Amino acid sequence: MTLQQLKYADAVATCGSLSEAARRVFVTQPTLTEAIRTLEEELRIAIFTRSSRGVALTHEGEEFLASARQILDDAALIQQKYTGKAVRRPQFAVSCQHFAFAVEAFMEVVRENDAESYDFTFRETVTSEIIDDVARHRSEIGMLYLSRRNERAIMKILRKEELVFEELFAARPHVFLGRKHPLAKKKIIKPQELDDYPYLTYEQGIENALYFAEEVMPSLDRKKNIRVRDRATMTNLVLGLNGFTVSSGAHGKSYSSDIISIPLKMDDSIRVGIVRRDGVTLSAAGASFVKALRARVANLSSCSSS
Asked: What is the rounded distance in angstroms from the CA atom of residue 228 to the CA atom of residue 244?
């Protein structure tokens, strides 16, 4: 087994395609395919499954890749220490629900990275894909929330995928609305007071089970519902239609100053946290991201307990 073979396996897992991986590591596809085949024979495991849709990691392959990436990172640190050159581009990917403070933490990690090149990914996506991305090694870290309504179902899925949830903070539900909204001067808002206003929620695609929703208040309880896919559209509709959404009340400095959060009178709690693979050490970038997250949530402009 060689470092080059580990690099090839890492590239295939990242790209999900032998042809794309071959381009990334500057070898022909037959050379890459033969290197992976030899590695699998040596280790006596199937690292990947092949199909018309591409390649995917097997369960044994997932365990192997976690170790392989740690070896590649350690080797890169040693070479950089003694040669002064970064020989492996730092790689990091995170998948999360729509948290503005997570974007700010990610930007901090990018700024801290002093490599000449890097390959980072930030995915704001649906809940089911967040879990799948982390389980399939497409992302090192996921971010989502748990509540009384979804915790049992989500935790069951995480345990099945050998993932763990680490809480960042807990908050009471808040209503997000515009500063000019008729309810903007309220100290606390009751759910029934929102009946005449559009409820903005994030669309979850084909996996639209209630426990995958990003909002703690079910849309089934509302008369007017609008589903969106991104934060920019959400903000525009909240402001343009006197709409509202429900979240933790925690937002970062980059969040629109025209949006405010007001506590919702609702007997529930929102626990926001990260999802990661059980027993796998975070990369340097992953650890920096979690550190930045914890610093952000400790200094959020809107106190989660307000």
From this structure: 12
